[in-house]
């Protein structure tokens, strides 16, 4: 039985827009997540820690963070840590990957295919690393093939799994499932795509490659639990994959209908009720919707302040005022003419596809919000 922990796309020291004042605290979260993964490597007695790229940002990555990684990796010795650099942390001569002295249990992959042999585990770990941020060709045609005399074969690779033939225009090492399958691996630890995905072998239709996703959310899009993959390979080459949540903080995206609220206190009451299931300390990306009284615009700064039990709140107001659109339309002013035009567009879109009807409806809602903002 061979066991491994697979992670990728941690993006330590990445610039995180909108978090300026909280940046250092959030970076501390990312390092805590790395420690959680390290604990998992030790607790589950993993044979390997596979890291498939975009670990420490080449641009902006700090020496202190590189030293943190060095100490962290030393703390799992003698467990091998196998790292394949990605497009955010390419194998540059002046990268910390090359300028620091790393513990003996850290194995780097470079732009020349590498194969590290672990005879006591009857395993070879193969890998390749980005030479620079943009790589338009698949690295797999240059893969020299499997070594003989070993039971298990693992690969670590950062790149984009593309459907069908690679078109040569994708800048991040495009690889096809067929190419990956042809390498004859028991498992391919992929990185690059931040959403978890497991790929089935085109012939056996069983899992043989995966993206674990980012273990800590980097943006509002990376909401909910975040994972690493715990893999187990038995003597017959059967693979079992388990997704283990490791995030330090959850990012939540919520839309709350605040229709009818016409004071800040009423708004806060609605939000406290609707968000009761959201744990303290989360990052909350909140959107307000619903028809509101024209006289009252939600004060987003105040709401952000009142929701201070969260680590970070970004509140976006998408409510619209309860203007009498028909009465405005009946008047000959510029607002009336604008709304009439949108009413015409809405009528025209009636027989069109749903996407077009949505666009027209959003345009009308936006127009009402703008008009309401001015007439307030
Ligand atoms: Mn990447």
From TrEMBL:
<feature type="domain" description="Calcineurin-like phosphoesterase">
    <location>
        <begin position="2"/>
        <end position="196"/>
    </location>
</feature>
<dbReference type="InterPro" id="IPR029052">
    <property type="entry name" value="Metallo-depent_PP-like"/>
</dbReference>
<dbReference type="InterPro" id="IPR050535">
    <property type="entry name" value="DNA_Repair-Maintenance_Comp"/>
</dbReference>
<keyword id="KW-0269">Exonuclease</keyword>
<keyword id="KW-0378">Hydrolase</keyword>
<dbReference type="InterPro" id="IPR004843">
    <property type="entry name" value="Calcineurin-like_PHP"/>
</dbReference>
<dbReference type="GO" id="GO:0004527">
    <property type="term" value="F:exonuclease activity"/>
</dbReference>
<keyword id="KW-0540">Nuclease</keyword>
<protein>
    <submittedName>
        <fullName>DNA repair exonuclease</fullName>
    </submittedName>
</protein>
<dbReference type="InterPro" id="IPR041796">
    <property type="entry name" value="Mre11_N"/>
</dbReference>
<dbReference type="Pfam" id="PF00149">
    <property type="entry name" value="Metallophos"/>
</dbReference>
């Amino acid at each position: 039985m061979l066991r491994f922990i697979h992670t990728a796309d941690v993006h330590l020291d990445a610039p995180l827009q909108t978090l300026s004042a909280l940046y250092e605290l959030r970076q501390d979260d990312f390092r805590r997540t790395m420690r959680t993964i390290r604990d998992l490597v030790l607790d589950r007695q993993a044979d390997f820690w596979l890291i498939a790229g975009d670990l420490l940002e080449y641009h902006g990555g700090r020496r202190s963070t590189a030293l943190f990684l060095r100490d962290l990796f030393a703390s799992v010795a003698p467990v091998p840590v196998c790292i394949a650099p990605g497009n955010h942390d390419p194998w540059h001569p002046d990268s910390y990957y090359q300028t620091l002295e790393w513990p003996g249990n850290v194995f780097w992959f470079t732009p020349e295919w590498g194969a590290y042999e672990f005879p006591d585990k009857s395993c070879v770990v193969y890998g390749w690393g980005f030479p620079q941020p943009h790589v338009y060709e698949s690295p797999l045609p240059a893969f020299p093939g499997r070594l003989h005399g070993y039971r298990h074969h693992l690969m670590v690779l950062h790149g984009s799994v593309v459907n069908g033939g690679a078109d040569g225009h994708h800048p991040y090492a495009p690889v096809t499932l067929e190419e990956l399958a042809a390498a004859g691996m028991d498992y391919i630890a992929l990185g690059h795509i931040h959403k978890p995905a497991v790929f089935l072998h085109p012939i056996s239709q069983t899992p043989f490659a995966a993206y674990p996703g980012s273990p800590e959310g980097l943006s509002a899009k990376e909401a909910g639990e975040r994972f690493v993959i715990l893999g187990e390979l038995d003597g017959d080459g059967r693979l079992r994959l388990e997704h283990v949540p490791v995030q330090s903080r959850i990012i939540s995206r919520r839309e709350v209908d605040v229709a009818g609220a016409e004071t800040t206190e009423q708004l806060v009451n609605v939000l406290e009720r609707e968000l009761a299931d959201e744990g303290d300390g989360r990052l909350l990306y909140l959107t307000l919707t619903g028809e509101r009284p024209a006289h009252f615009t939600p004060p987003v700064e105040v709401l952000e302040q009142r929701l201070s039990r969260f680590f970070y709140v970004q509140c976006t107001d998408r409510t619209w005022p309860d203007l009498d659109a028909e009465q405005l339309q009946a008047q000959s002013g510029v607002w009336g003419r604008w709304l009439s035009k949108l009413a015409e567009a809405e009528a025209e879109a009636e027989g069109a596809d749903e996407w077009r009807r949505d666009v027209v409806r959003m345009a009308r809602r936006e127009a009402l919000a703008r008009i309401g903002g001015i007439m307030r």
